[in-house]
Amino acid sequence: MSERRQPDGAKPAGDGGDRAVSGAPAYEGGDRAVSGAPAYEGGDRAVSGAPAYEGGDRAVSGAPAYEGGDRAVSGAPAYDGQEEGGEVRLRRQAALALAVLAALVLAVAALTTPWQALLTAGEPPGPARDFTAVQLARSQAFDAATSLPSYLSLALTVLVAGLLVATPLGARATGWLRGPWWLRTILGVAVIAAATLALRWPLGMWFETVLREYGLSTQSWPSWSGDRLKNAAVEAFLLALTITALVALARRFRRWWIPAAAGAFALTVAASFVYPVVFEPMFNDFTPMREGPLRTSLLAMAERDGVPVEDVLVADASRRTTALNAYVSGFGATRRVVVYDTLLRAPEAEVELVVAHELGHAKHDDVLHGTLLAGLGAALGAVLLFLIFDLVRRRAAVPSIADPRAAGALMGLMSLGTLLLGPVQNVVSRQVEARADLHALELTRDPETFVAMQKRLALSNISDLSPDAVEYVLYASHPSGPERIAMARAWARLNGVNAP
Question: Whose C-alpha in 328, 417, 443, 476 is 20 to 30 A from the C-alpha of 182?
Answer without folding.
Answer: 417
